[in-house]
């Protein structure tokens, strides 16, 4: 009889999925609290025997104020606690917990690991840009953006470790450590050569003497060109050009008349044209002649005002025209 009851109980618990004999839901599994660039995210896996319609509620503990409400009745398997910015500090230590809910039933709370944001956060990769300048390459570095505060505010000392190499020769790389400037010039490079660069951030925070490192940046490459000329070469070239310009202006002012006569000569007839025209006096008469005087006679129109009536044509009004004959 007892064996039959045990078999019935086992069969019933299997059919009920995530429900156990006591009526309490199975809790979530693999609960962990992580941080990337100063965020705070609680993640978990569903129960070993999940059922449909499960919801999750989370809380987090700041070790000072006790547990606070995080995400409530969510169906996803993570909760970004950084959205509660008023309650999250970059120097706090946090623990999270989550439970399953189905209707009016809830599972037991499952706690996560504890993390300290400034110690355990994963620092993302910096952003690197390269600019070629002759036989040198300038690297411009930008820190990753933190969800809370900033890289320089959280850590006492943050420096860059720069590694660079000729394209295809990474095993022969060169490196520069403990760089504090975000713009660095890589010199002693071969002209007309492609170089690749990768940067990693190193941080130190007292009293922890061991530095932590960020995710390495993406590898970026840039080519050098010709060797950069010495500054005095450009100065000499500029001086020579200016001196030549001044000399040209002075010559133009002093010899402006001669230059004008040379560029714009006066018109002159060839000698054989002059001899031909002098041998034909008609050309001289035509050249010295004046246009003939026009002869004309005045014409007057006289109207007798005494016989003009309104509405009569000019001929009916006795208009007379007189014209003096041409006496020429």
Structure description:
There is one protein chain. The protein has 7 helices and 18 strands. It is α+β, with helices and mostly antiparallel strands and 328 residues long. The strands form 5 sheets. Strands 3, 4, 6, 7 and 8 form a 5-stranded antiparallel β-sheet that branches. Strands 11, 12, 14, 15 and 16 form a 5-stranded antiparallel β-sheet that branches. Strand 6 and strand 7 (105-106) form a beta hairpin. The model is unreliable at 1-22, 306-312 and 314-328 (pLDDT under 50).
For the structure shown, list the relevant keywords.
disordered C terminus; disordered N terminus; five-stranded antiparallel sheet; 7 helices; elongated; 328 residues; alpha+beta; 18 strands
* Poorly predicted regions: 1-22, 306-312, 314-328
| Individual helix count | 7
| Basic shape | elongated
Structural class, judged by helices and strands?
Answer: alpha+beta
Cα-to-Cα separation, first versus last residue: 166 Å
Task: Report helical residue fraction.
Answer: 10-25%
Average residue pLDDT: 80
Query: Which percent range describes the beta-strand content?
Result: 25-35%
Tell me the Rg in angstroms. 51 Å
Largest sheet: 5 strands, antiparallel
Tally of strands: 18
Write the element-wise H/E pattern from the N-terminal end onward: HEEEEEEEEHEEHEEEEEEHHHHEE
